[in-house]
Write a structure and sequence with these properties.
The chain is of the alpha/beta class and 245 residues long. Among the domains are: 51 residues, Ribbon (Seminal Fluid Protein  PDC-109 (Domain B)), CATH 2.10.10.20; 71 residues, Seminal Fluid Protein  PDC-109 (Domain B). The protein has four helices and 14 strands. It is rod-shaped, with a radius of gyration of 34 Å. The chain starts with 45 loop residues before the first helix and ends with a strand.
């Protein structure tokens, strides 16, 4: 059997049809359809075109099809029913897909995989969150490559950015006990090692110390600032207690 250029065969020698739309002759949406650009008939191919239509008029369809196979350029100059029907099937598959199937398609390929974990293997289309931002995996397999804040990388594309930190309310903004995985902003107030600290510069994983310019020591008397899971029973009036959760 001789087939025009626009059909493909599977391993059993059968004409391949879309597994999604089995009544159509094209491949979409299972794969991209490859089409040849058509051109006007030139004088150099006039005799071959005449031969093609002579075969068709005589009912010799196999000879006509073989002529196109043997002369690929001529094939781009002959617009027949099979090609027009294929164009029609491509248009139909696009309409059906975007009308009835695009939501299912997206849901199957884009899934939320939770908070980023360095030991997890992510696949293309996985969506994760990290430090208040959302990222989507761009490659087939990614493990141990962390997304970069505010940035598109080879492995990850950012899909939601953390907004600009708003202005703190009047005075300091209590943030509890200092945590290395938390981002802090100007005028945030934390307790660390029984000392109360004021954030002077936006930072993360920057431990408050006397020599760290990101932080300003406010209170250092261990009797005045206490961090514990339960409320102390011996605090004096005016002392501060931060509950550890």
């Amino acid at each position: 059997m001789v087939l025009p250029f626009y059909y493909t065969l599977n391993k059993d020698g059968e004409i391949y049809l879309s597994t999604t739309y089995t009544t159509l002759s094209n491949n979409f949406p299972d794969s991209i359809d490859v089409m040849t650009k058509m051109s006007d008939l030139s004088s150099a191919y006039k005799d071959l075109a005449t031969q093609y239509y002579t075969y068709k008029n005589a009912g010799n369809d196999s000879a006509a099809a073989q002529l196109l196979v043997d002369n690929p350029t001529l094939d781009t100059m002959i617009l027949n029913a099979a090609k027009i029907n294929r164009f029609n099937d491509i248009a139909l598959s696009l309409e059906w897909f975007f009308k009835d199937n695009v939501e299912t398609y997206l849901e199957a390929r884009f899934t939320y995989a939770g908070e980023y974990a360095s030991g997890t293997t992510y696949v293309k289309g996985n969506i994760i969150s990290l430090n208040g931002e959302g990222f989507i995996c761009r490659i087939t397999s990614s493990v141990g490559v962390s997304p970069t804040a505010h940035t598109n990388t080879t492995n990850w594309a950012i899909i939601s950015k953390q907004g600009i930190q708003g202005v703190s309310g009047t005075g300091l903004a209590p943030r509890g006990d200092w945590n290395s995985s938390t981002s802090y902003y100007v005028n945030d107030c934390v307790a660390h090692n029984n000392v109360l600290w004021q954030c002077m510069t936006e930072n993360a994983n920057s431990e408050p110390t006397i020599s760290n310019g990101n932080w300003l020591q406010l209170l250092s008397n261990s009797n005045l600032v206490v961090t514990s899971s339960s409320q102390p029973t011996n605090q004096s009036s005016g002392c501060l207690w931060f509950q550890q959760l």
